Amino acid sequence: MNKRFYITLASISICLLGHVQGQQTTLIGHQDLIGYFNPALNGGSNGQVSYLYRYQWEGLGPSSNTLFFKYPLMSNGKVWSPHAIGSVFQYEDFNLANRAKLEFFASSTLAEFKQIRVGLGLNTGLNYNGINTDGFNVEELVDPELAGVDRRLSIANKLGLSIHHRLVDFGLAARLLNTTSITDYHSSFSFNVPLKRQKYRLNPIVVLRMTENFEHQLEGQLKASYDQTISATVGYRQNFGAIFQLAFRLNNSSKISYGIEAPGNDASSLGLTHELFGSYYFESPAMVQHRKDSIIKVRRDSINRARVERYRQLQVEEKAKKDSLANQSVVEVSEPDTVLTEEEPIIAEEEGGIYSSLDDLAGNVSDNTHIILDHIGFEPGLYLLTPDSYTELDKLYNYIRHHKTLHIEIQGHTDNSGSPETNLDLSRYRALTVFNYLLSRGIDPARMNVVGYGENLPLYPNDTKENRELNRRIEIVFIKK
Fold first, then answer.
1. 128 within 8 A of 152, measured Cβ to Cβ
2. In Å, what is the CA distance from 377 to each residue of 383, 412, 476?
3. Confidence bin at 298 (pLDDT 50/70/90)
4. For 11, which DSSP code?
5. Sorting pLDDT into bands at 50, 70 and 90, what band is 11?
């Protein structure tokens, strides 16, 4: 091809580069990357490593590679409480022009008012813009100003604000060239809509982008998900076209998704835009240790509370015996001593009683009502749920979701097979497995405590196989707040 073709193509590429300079090209339909557009929305307790590949307009437009990293921080929920830090690296190829950027972000809680949480996010980094001069001489360009794009390095800053209230999230971000110049805005408004069938969920989102180098852009999307394992997103982006995306959850820590965008109006001849997205989620060591510490604290508090209740019950029983003897005209009654040793971690059948099934509750729950979930099982010696356990877990989830005033304590118990230390750890992790399942379904972690008792609280003597099976159990204690 001749130089005139390369010069023309370079001019088109550089002009396109100028247009998208303030325009984020990644599809927001991958809602796991919402923090890419607004650093204030980088919350949550999980870390994230994501990769996104974009192939725009069947190769006519830019192709891009984006690497996103987020590391969670310990948050105490108070003012200026940190949420996460991370970075974004992106390289975009506009054929004869290219752009690369490396940015770092941080997010935190700015303030809290009852159920409203206000978040703040900061983003700063460097942008590098250049042209590929292998096929032509920069000096031969028709427009001399285009040569100035070559090897241009600029600072990119972004300030984000977020407002969260129950199932609603609002975000507003502005890109700053300096302290006085704002080049573009990005605002989003999203909902989390649980349906009557609890495994189904809808997430509508509306996005508005405004930039000095591109027309204002309005986007609407609707994401439907099933049991957090598969989701589909449809939407429309102004000046670009219709969007469709399909995502699959591979396991508890990873997912992949594929998206296409079909240009509309006069741009329908440009061809489809394709995106491939993969993400891995993790917990920080500090959060893992915090959970272990919380389990120990909850166990200690639960045992102490049980001892107090047991002591009170013994006092009532002794008083009842004394009154009964007095009614039988017994002249002298000796009051037996009641001793509660430090080694006695027995939880009595408190006021609420003990039930063997959620179906027996009939909606009447008082403080310290115990439910033994007979239909929840684990693989032998492990804390992996058996496939038939999820029916009972779904019943528990629905019950907790519909009784919003209830808090629960999830207790794990084992038989006496193995060492006491191993059984104690196993019971903790089994209770934590139930906690994580309820957390993944949307139950507020503040409503749940986790404790493992190991072999310390058997229902029956561990002398037969049947009794040992009954002692291996998950027990739920309901607490009214």
1. yes
2. 9, 11, 14
3. low
4. H
5. very low
Q: What is the mean pLDDT of residues 78-97?
A: 82
Q: What is the pTM of this model?
A: 0.57
CA distances to 3, 117, 189, 190, 203 from 163, rounded to whole Å, are 53, 6, 10, 11, 17
Mean pLDDT over 235-245 rounds to 86
Structure tokens at 89: 């690296």
Return the number of other C-beta atoms located less than 10 Å from residue 282's C-beta.
Answer: 16
Determine what percent of the chain is predicted with pLDDT higher than 90. Answer: 11
Q: How many degrees, rounded to 5, is the angle at CA 88 between CA 87 and CA 90?
A: 155
Pick the closest to residue 371 from 329, 406, 422 (CA basis).
406
**C-alpha pair distances (Å), 410 with each of 114, 295, 353, 427, 437:** 27, 10, 16, 10, 12
pLDDT of residue 213: 64
How far, in Å, CA of 223 to CA of 238, rounded?
18
Within 10 Å of residue 26's Cβ, how many Cβ atoms? Answer: 20
Residues with Cβ within 8 Å of residue 464, at least 6 apart in sequence: none
Q: pLDDT averaged over the chain?
A: 76
Q: Which two tokens stand for residue 368?
A: 């310290």
The whole-angstrom separation of Cα 441 and Cα 479 is 20
pLDDT, average across residues 367-373: 78
Q: DSSP for 100-155?
A: EEEEEEEEEEEEEETTEEEEEEEEEEEEEEEE--SSS-GGG-SSGGGGGGTTEEEE
